[in-house]
Amino acid sequence: MCGISGVVGLKDISNALFETIRNLEYRGYDSCGVALLNKNSIVVKKNVGGVEEFYRKENVLRHKSSIGIAHTRWATHGRVTRENTHPHQSCDGKFAVVHNGIISNYRALKESLVRLGHRFESETDTEVIPHLLEENHRKLNNVEAAFVKTLCELEGTFAIAFVSTYHPGQIFCAKRESPLMLGIGDEIKFVGSDFNSFIDYTKNAVIIDDGEYAIVSRDSYMVKNYLTREEVAKPITKIEWDAETSKKGGFPHYMLKEIHEQPQTVTNALDVEDAVLDKVVEGIAQSGQGHLVGVGTTYYVAQFGQYMISSLAGQSLFAVSSDEFAALSNVGRDSFVLALSQSGETYDTLTAVKHAKSRGARTAAVVNVMGSSLSRLADNVVLQGSGPEICVISTKAALAQMVILVRIGLKLALRKNAMTAAAFDRSMSVLRDLPGIIQAVLNERSGFIHRIAHEYFKIKHWLYLGRGVYYPIALESALKMKEVAYVHAEGMPGGFLKHGTLAMIDKDIYSIVFIPPREEKALYEATLHSVEEIRARSGFVLGIHFDERGKNKNLFSEELILPNVSPLIAPLLQLVISQLFAYFTATSLKRDIDKPRSLAKSVTVG
Ligand code: AGP
């Protein structure tokens, strides 16, 4: 939800600033702006549009400077206009500010600032910050003191960075519940919303914690707590991600690249140390009630985990959407909450975990981004090691989390004697075959999926149906279609169909049905009933199944046949297929694949 970056260096940093903000574009991309310090004045350039479009239109790179800040916006307060684009400036032009988060008391602050004579140019909550800085500086005659006073007056969430003509060699920044880190290079320093921003320049990072502010210059940086004003000794975190994995590497889109990376990300999920997962398993086993929380895709991952853990280990966990967690879940000291988040910065999920902790529950998280807020908040952390996921649509990170949940389910089953050691070993060996099978399916089926996606890309309504663990796969697959192709897709349990939605079946509603392997006899047959119900009403069904012998020839309108695999991995394979189907539908519709409209990679607001 908005990306902020800042660079201060020896020579001209304008190109580095461009690259660092472009690397954050997946966080929001409806408008972009920069502030560059030029001798004793601040040059602000901003406009609507994506980073590259803005830089080209405004010819931004012709402005040279050794210090600057930049912002890429995902609108929350105020429409997508040039006026609402960051940076925002004080009336005297001496402060330029970029911000990610929401200032919840901005109306009251704005009213009192207007009474003091400040003129506002935007509808944003952010604009109160430069005016407060100006006002507090007038009183205190010291930028750092004015910054601290301003921070104490702000309610809500923020990652803030600003430059000021009073200190032309310094970037000031602060954090409360929105991500912020520093990149530490030789004779160059960075401020960024995440590692991706500056990974091309340095792998040394300092993670700013809530309640801290930093003053960064070319040769040094200092971090302090803004309540105590005391300096905080911060460790350097070594970024383990490789800069190359953040690039497209020959693929037309990050989404396709990340789908194709799944054999590797599944391998990485299988390599997560047993000891790390054992702590989670122990937490679930010892709890009175276990909860799985996530939101959007990770809620569907949580639902997948709920089915898997229930069927493998015979233990019921509640899967709850993070945004509903506080309203729905009774957590207490005997509860265990496992949160799932790719970014580790999702406001709703962080809020759910904080709520759980405040009630004395034990917590754990499966997270992709090391150093993220969730990874520092949860009592135990499983780093899934999927590498940077740049496309706004989550693919590889979600699949890797599902694999980790299967491992947790198997371990819990073993721990509870619901499974023999031999059965556990067999299941693990099935899981270890998954990367190779995904690779083969990607190699052999991509062309066919491309063809059928292109044939049906004009269909306006899809029903995605699955039963049992295939139901969350249907939900997640439908979400892929909605967010990348902007096509209406509704996920539903197969058994639900006859309780109402069947009335909708006609020639305009197309269905995709996730059929389990035949060996799951009861589920297989129940799923085929759903297919029959649709076909009896002349509805179209695309069946994704494992019957290589093709016995269902007359049952489906279109079929996508996968190699027959164990039920343990069958739903995961189907998810890969539906990711590709959504991707190719979206390319046929000429959608903006990696940056779909109205979305942002990590939603850091509530
Ligand atoms: C995924 O494709 C979506 N963009 C979105 O639902 C996402 O999964 C959700 O916002 C949660 O994000 P997180 O995993 O970073 O917490």
Name the CATH superfamily assignment of the largest domain: Aminohydrolase, N-terminal nucleophile (Ntn) domain
Percent of residues in helical segments? 25-40%
Structural class: alpha/beta
Number of helices: 17
Query: In one word, what is the shape?
Result: globular
Question: Any low-confidence stretches, pLDDT <50, length ≥5?
Answer: none
Largest sheet: 8 strands, antiparallel
Gap from first CA to last CA: 11 Å
Number of domains: 3
Query: Order of strands across the biggest sheet?
Result: 3-2-4-1-10-9-11-14
C-alpha Rg, in Å? Answer: 25 Å
- Average per-residue pLDDT, rounded, comes to 93
Bound molecules: 2-deoxy-2-amino glucitol-6-phosphate
The CATH topology assignment of the largest domain is Glutamine Phosphoribosylpyrophosphate, subunit 1, domain 1
Helices and strands, with pairings:
Blueprint lengths: L2 E7 L4 H9 L8 E8 L2 E8 L2 H8 L8 E7 L14 E2 L5 E6 L5 H10 L12 H13 L2 H11 L4 E7 L2 E10 L4 E5 L2 E5 L11 E4 L4 E6 L3 E5 L11 E2 L15 H7 L1 H10 L2 H13 L2 E6 L2 H17 L3 E5 L3 H4 L6 E7 L5 H12 L3 E6 L5 H5 L2 E4 L12 H20 L5 H35 L5 E6 L3 H16 L2 E6 L15 E6 L6 H15 L4 E6 L12 E4 L8 H19 L18
Parallel strand pairs: 15-16, 15-17, 17-18, 18-19, 20-21, 20-22, 22-23, 23-24
Antiparallel strand pairs: 1-4, 1-10, 2-3, 2-4, 5-6, 6-7, 7-8, 8-12, 9-10, 9-11, 11-14, 12-13
Helix pairs in contact: 3-4, 4-5, 7-13, 7-14, 8-13, 9-13, 9-15, 13-14, 14-17, 15-17
The site of 2-deoxy-2-amino glucitol-6-phosphate has 16 residues, from helix 9.
